[in-house]
Amino acid sequence: MKLVRYRTPDGITTGLLDGEEITALEGLSVVELLILSPADRAARVDAARGATVPLADAELTAPVEQPGKFLALGFNFADHAGEQPDMSNQTVVDLYETVRLTRAAYPSPKLPTIFNKQTSSICGPFDPVLMPEDSELLDYEGELVIVIGAHGRRLSPGQALSIVGGYTVTNDISVRDWQWDTPTTWPGKSFDTHGPIGPCVVTADALDLSDLAIRTWVNGELRQDSSTAAMVLDVATIVSTISQICSLQPGDLIATGTPGGIGTPTANWLKVGDVMRVEVEGIGVIENTVVAEDALGPSLPEGEWSLSRS
Known about the structure:
With 310 residues, the protein is α+β, with helices and mostly antiparallel strands. The protein is 17% helix and 33% strand. It has two domains: 60 residues, SH3 type barrels; 227 residues, Fumarylacetoacetate hydrolase, domain 2.
């Protein structure tokens, strides 16, 4: 089952995506549906079916509204962790030296690299992405995202999948100088609009994660081409590990890491006008255009997060 949120003249509505059509699900939210068992979910969907609109006529928004957490993993693909920097570019060399020193300080970590993106970074699957006024080191990271569908704490790997409600796609937009100016990394991961998600949430019962393609294009050029089969830690391990630290709640998001092919090693930074396209097989595509920070004015589209700028 593919669940979406889309904007109509009456506001934002939850819908069921089926091919090229969306059926409105009156009075329901995506997270409410993820909490249910597959049988109960199907029954609720059937009872709530409303008008149908063509997908081409719908304005999709972020499928999960205001999650409690937006967590993410770093270095969960070996080819990304091993990317070699262009030693002729001093900015790249300096960034990678910071990464090296940070990782060297923790030679035998008990935990994978976990950080958070502030939830105010979330935007829709086709919304514009802001180029910061104070950095040119903007980068992309195509990723699979886990959407939590039930409360869970201190779960074993064998229990962890029971609280996964579904999956979506993100582009973990990263401002590299802000990211590596602090060992927590979150400032460079959390700029407004730097967490597009969508286009839908595919329920966990409808997706086999064993070998799904993950691809990213910039201006039509394929930059990342990998698979969920190449993830260092699988979904069960990721969810179990994080649940040892904090309770996971319905609607929480966990980005599972990006494969090799990011722009940083070669200083191939994003520019205003660049179009980023991220696809996870079985879920769909998000596509976002980089715009100058002033282009969106003082706020994001109505119904989404607001920007607050001095």
